[in-house]
Write a structure and sequence with these properties.
This protein is an alpha/beta fold and 210 residues long. The chain contains twelve helices and five strands. The protein has a five-stranded parallel β-sheet, with helices on both faces. It is globular, with a radius of gyration of 18 Å.
Length: 210
């Protein structure tokens, strides 16, 4: 018997994830970097985020860290950029345990997985080298494309790499503006509020068994 259209769509759907705030906890990098630099998180937050968009769009690592440290009134020391970048990428590339457990359920069921994240080139490399990313079919980062969420063009470009119709992409992001842009593109997009709620969404979407 031929399956219904909804069953075919559920079976072929790819589940695409944002990284920070979804697969990896937000805030961990600032804690680790503030400790390394001997400053308060509140003092570091401004310089850390001030040039982050340009960095996520493919900016050069040492220039970014020079700006961060300069924002603290310091000069960048020899080898310091590499050390700070390693702390940063290690923090953002480590999965939250509850997200890892949900991914394991999906991978065991053969559900195609993807990533679409605003992230610099160094973090993209770190994620691609991580053991957990071997379960992912396609990983797309802003630094790959020179585009950032919620720019509509990034969803079109990512969709081409995912190789699926827009209606076959289920997407999780922690930022409502990114979810709204993804929905406008036709993705089945949802605001991430945690792994338990995410699993319930995937059951409703027909991707995960109840």
């Amino acid at each position: 018997m031929e399956r219904s259209q909804s069953s075919r769509t559920a079976a072929s759907a790819m589940v695409v994830w944002d990284l920070g705030g979804v697969l990896a906890p937000s805030g961990r990098a600032l804690v680790a970097l503030a400790g390394e630099l001997g400053v308060a998180e509140s003092e570091l937050a401004g310089p850390y985020w001030a040039d982050r968009d340009a960095y996520d769009l493919g900016g050069e690592s040492e220039a970014y860290w020079r700006a961060v440290v300069g924002g603290l009134g310091r000069a960048l020391g020899e080898g310091e950029a590499a050390r700070l970048d390693r702390i940063d990428t290690d923090s953002w590339a480590a999965l939250a345990p509850e997200s890892a457990a949900l991914l394991a359920r999906l991978a065991e069921g053969g559900v195609p997985l993807g990533v679409l994240s605003n992230a610099p080139s160094s973090l993209a490399r770190r994620v691609r080298a991580a053991a957990w990313s071997a379960d992912f079919e396609t990983l797309v980062f802003s630094s790959d494309l020179g585009l950032m969420k919620p720019d509509p063009d990034i969803y079109r470009a990512a969709g081409e790499k995912f190789g699926r119709a827009a209606s076959e992409v289920v997407f999780f992001d922690d930022r409502p503006e990114n979810v709204a842009a993804a929905r406008a593109h036709g993705w089945r997009a949802h605001v991430w509020t945690g792994a338990e709620a995410g699993a319930a969404v995937l059951v409703r979407e027909g991707v995960l068994g109840g």
